Amino acid sequence: MDHAHQLDAQVLLLDLTGTSVLLVLPADRPDWTLPGGSVIPGESVAMAARRALHDRLGLEREISHGLAEDQVPANANTGAPDGIAIVCDGGRMTLADISAMSLPIGHALDTRGLEWVPVDLLSRYTEPYIERRIRAAVTAAALGHRFPLLFQGEPVNAT
After folding, report:
1. How much is the pTM?
2. Cα–Cα distance for residue pair 140/149, rounded to 1 Å
3. C-alpha dihedral sign at 110, 138, 131, 65
């Protein structure tokens, strides 16, 4: 029996107070979500997260730990396969970090918007299951509950 699975690497980026998260509005989705993308076969989750941040936001961030793992069943309406989203810890962003963000020309059409959203207002932006995923990751970050991202049993490089 062959099962198609999708593995996604998403990144939780918090403001300095830890009360707002950076959300993106992708061109191919009707709702807001965390920045990230699909993991390419042979690529680590950490590398996929770093690649997505660089390609889509012009950001360079160290990614070495996860905050939450979310399993999503297949969706017969959209044809989406079973999936797993790993929410990686992107840390807190300083004003200098925020000012360094940009939409690279090659990916500017992939993203319709960026917005800092207070955690209390997530329900206005996201699907309920995405809101629950983000809230779980925010709670894990606040409590310092992170897990190492491994690739073939080895910790990924932090850089």
Report:
1. 0.89
2. 15
3. positive
